[in-house]
Amino acid sequence: MENQTMPDEGINMHEEMRRAFALLSGKWKLEIMWLLNQRVYRFGELRKAIPGITQHMLTAQLRELEADGLVSRTVFAEVPPRVEYAITPKARGLGPTLEALTTWWNEYGKSVPAKPSTRGRKPRGS
User: Fold this and answer.
1) Domain ranges for the chain
2) Among residues 34, 55, 33, which one has the least CA distance to residue 43?
3) Which residues form a coiled coil (predicted)?
């Protein structure tokens, strides 16, 4: 496949798509975005909803997503402090992509061999 350049604009779409993929690359970012596309989560809820993720890795991934403008973090001045994470309006634009991935998985997911998880913390009860 050759690099596509948008006529009259000099935009290399291959490079632009690499930038887009980099925003969501990593083991956990898509899963975080998929969850946040459904509703607002608190940090502890996200950690429980993602088996195998460590507190350190969840914090790092959320910080990267926030820095890229895909996730917003709201701190409430309460005791104990409450922090909520939500996807931004910019990230809402990924909703159709996440829905298409869900549709694809519902059709073809059973044909994909399951891989054992070898990284991250063990889910509770294991």
Assistant:
1) 25-93
2) 55
3) none
Which CATH architecture is the domain 25-93 placed in? Orthogonal Bundle (1.10)
Question: Tokens 């890795």 appear where?
Answer: 57
| pLDDT value, residue 118 | 56
Dihedral sign (CA 102, 108, 109, 115): negative
pLDDT the model gives residue 55 = 95
Q: What are the tokens at 11?
A: 């935009």
The separation between CA 1 and the C-alpha centre of its own chain, rounded to angstroms, equals: 27
| The length of the chain, given as a count of residues | 126
Task: Calculate the alpha carbon distances from 57 to 29, 63, 79 in Å.
Answer: 10, 10, 25
User: Are the CB atoms for 72 and 88 separated by under 8 Å?
Assistant: yes
Do 41 and 53 contact (CB within 8 A), yes or no? no
List the chain residues with pLDDT less than 50.
1
Location of structure tokens 């519902």: 106
Instruction: Classify strands 5-6 and 41-42 as parallel, antiparallel or unpaired.
Output: unpaired
Q: How many CB atoms lie within 10 A of CB 40?
A: 13
Look-up of token digits 């869900």: 102
